[in-house]
Design a protein that fits this description.
Elements lengths: L5 H9 L25 E2 L17 E2 L13 E4 L28 E11 L2 E9 L13 E5 L9 E3 L9 H4 L4 H8 L3 E13 L9 E6 L11 E5 L11 E7 L12 H4 L5 H10 L1 E8 L4
Parallel strand pairs: 10-12
Antiparallel strand pairs: 1-2, 3-4, 3-7, 4-5, 5-6, 8-9, 8-11, 9-10, 11-12
């Protein structure tokens, strides 16, 4: 049965692969601790033959999935109609997923490269940088080729700009973007408390959630920035102006909710974990005054 806390996380998972909202001009968040260098290595290989050979496509560098990897594992689709498959290769055991992927779809690299049928394959979670209420159907995790056999790249390191560390910027962004940009850095957000769903002090983190409405935010979608409460934190009354201190990539994320994969049957465990790691968990809430 769906726990009361899951609407925030379920909305985030539903929007992995959403169509992007209108993007707006942003100032880069210039902090070396949260911006990692993105790189790609070029691997030349023999021309593919009838046997399985690697392609001559530039091969993205896959970084270990650690808190120090930052945004280096986020890539973007730089072509149209990129096929995502259930397995590396083009054989009958590799099912083609629908729909195909086109720019500006983002990809979080999980594994690869794997050489098969003349291509270099990467296992990815697809997602959109911005939230809307329209979800893209189909599985969100699969294998894509990094480029064509002629050397044309089909995916490339993400060139996007990290959000500013405030509630108004974060509420429209994918939690995977927040995870990649901020890791487990302590952030302080301000706004007004919206609706809360609280299982009580001492309950698991992901059974306790609230919305934070940024100061000056006009009611649109989404209704506020969703965050979770650490087990020892008491919620604050609706409408109270607060300063919320917390972090993404909370230690409780790996056990956020194993049952959610049954609610969203096309959401892989890897996508669930990424969204849980990207969720913001409050470790302190204090009163403040609206500007």
């Amino acid at each position: 049965m769906m726990r009361r806390v899951l609407p925030i996380l379920a909305a985030a998972l539903t929007c992995i692969g959403c169509a992007p909202a209108a993007q707006h001009s942003q100032v880069p968040y210039d902090a070396s601790a949260v911006t990692a260098t993105v790189s790609a290595s070029v691997a030349a290989a023999p021309t593919p033959s009838a046997t399985v050979e690697p392609s001559t496509t530039p091969v993205p560098t896959l970084h270990s999935d650690s808190r120090s990897s930052g945004r280096a594992n986020i890539f973007e689709v730089v072509t149209t109609d990129l096929v995502m498959r259930s397995a590396p290769g083009t054989g009958p055991d590799s099912v083609i997923y629908s729909p195909s992927l086109s720019a500006p779809m983002l990809l979080y690299l999980l594994d690869g490269p794997v050489a098969a049928d003349g291509y270099e394959w990467f296992r990815v979670v697809r997602f959109e940088e911005y939230f809307t209420d329209i979800g893209l159907p189909g599985p969100n995790t699969g294998w894509v080729a990094g480029g064509g056999q002629d050397g044309e790249p089909w995916i490339a390191p993400w060139k996007g700009v990290c959000p500013e560390p405030n509630a108004s910027e974060l509420l429209t962004r994918s939690p995977i973007v927040a995870l990649a940009c901020f890791g487990d850095l302590e952030l302080t957000l301000e706004g007004t408390v919206g609706d809360c769903s609280d299982a009580g002090v001492g309950a698991p983190v992901f059974q306790r959630s609230c919305l934070l409405v940024p100061f000056g935010y006009q009611a649109q979608l989404p209704p506020g920035f969703g965050f979770y409460l650490a087990t020892s934190i008491s919620p604050v009354g609706r409408g109270e102006p607060v300063r919320v201190t917390g972090q993404h990539d909370h230690p409780a994320a790996p056990t956020c909710d194993d049952d959610i994969t049954h609610l969203l049957d096309q959401t892989s465990p890897e996508a669930v974990l990424l969204s849980c790691r990207g969720a913001f968990v409050a470790t302190e809430i204090s009163p403040t005054s609206a500007p």
